[in-house]
Amino acid sequence: MPEVLKVSADSNPKAVAGALAALLREHGSAELQAIGAGAVNQAVKAIAITRGFIAPNGIDLVAIPAFTKVEIDGQERTAIRFLVEARTPPAR
Asked: Given 8, 16, 22, 92, which is the most exposed site by the fewest CB atoms within 10 A?
């Protein structure tokens, strides 16, 4: 199971991107979890920034969005999760 990074509307996308890049280099995959439009916006920015961080290493990434349910303070909330995986482009 990939490691989960929780992203909020106040998260710094560059900091999230650094953490995400480290997880991708180490494990090959990670998951971002965001609740709310602002948090989803920061998560998408972080994914785009991460792509720039790891591209010089010959690694591309793919992000698969999905809905998931999470419990916060006893209430069920809907979150967006991004399964982010590193992939090596095919040899030419």
From this structure: 92
